[in-house]
Amino acid sequence: MSSSAMHVAQTGLDAQQIKMQIIANNLANVNTTGFKRDRANFESLLYQVVRSGGAETADGAMLTSSSTIGTGVHLVSTQKLYSQGSLVSTENSLDVAIDGQGFFQVLMPDGRMGYTRNGIFSQNAEGTLTTPSGYVLQPEIQLPENVTEINISQDGIVSVKVAGSDEPQEVGQITLASFTNPRGLQPVGETFAVATPASGDPIEGTPYQGGFGKLQQGYLESSNVNVVQQLVDMIETQRAYEVSSKSITAVDEMMRYINNNL
């Protein structure tokens, strides 16, 4: 039983180490544009059933509760929490924030579609809108040469003025994607996530319509990490780790006592 208790305590240590890593990652990305904080979900491991509830104890008598022993804890999943981050003004015409539901769609180098809340855009050599890493926004929007003014409306229409003309011309439409279960998206780094069977297929739509959020030009969405709450969680995790380690120490002392006195 003593070695079993050590194993249970070890699962607690492993769980708290995982939780601490998630908290550390949240804090590391506190200034990452469009980052959504993660949460670890744990569940208990299988129980050892010594006697089932209702088992007969004597003639006409039954156990009123079962006799079971837990075997520890393990990580069942991690979740992205897609609450809205605060909008920060940048006064950059190619910075765009989503105020509400939806993701920007970006074609990744491996051919997959990436979904992100990071609206930092720029132009490549051909004038196509891309992310800072050079990944092309979908659907593609190409700006003409000699642009003097860029305007992105709340419903995603991109229009520009070119040198020598006062009339704006429409050059494209930014669309957004949503998912039935956004927590089912799989993060792949660079603030991108990709669709999985758990998230369902993407639902594409126009900003400010059909439940999608509106676009805010000249703004970026900051991380939704609450530093104070993360520090509180860190202290709580550290204390839980210490308690599990003390359980191992206590079991070790019990086993030493038995070895020395029996």
Secondary-structure blueprint of this entry?
Layout: H1 2-28, E1 38-44, E2 48-51, E3 56-58, E4 61-62, E5 67-69, E6 73-80, E7 87-89, E8 96-99, E9 104-107, E10 113-116, E11 122-123, E12 129-130, E13 136-138, E14 147-152, E15 157-162, E16 169-173, E17 176-178, E18 186-189, E19 192-194, E20 203-205, E21 214-217, E22 219-221, H2 227-261
Antiparallel strand pairs: 1-6, 2-5, 3-4, 7-22, 8-21, 9-10, 9-13, 11-12, 14-15, 15-16, 17-20, 18-19
Helix pairs in contact: 1-2
Structural write-up:
Helix content is 24%, strand content 33%. The chain is of the alpha+beta class and 262 residues long. The chain folds into two domains: 2-82 and 225-261, no CATH class; 87-221, no CATH class. It has a three-stranded antiparallel sheet, with no helix packed on it. The chain has a three-stranded antiparallel sheet with strand order 14-15-16, with no helix packed on it. The chain has a two-stranded antiparallel sheet with strand order 1-6. Helix 1 runs antiparallel to helix 2. The longest helix has 35 residues, at 227-261. The chain is elongated and about 95 Å long.
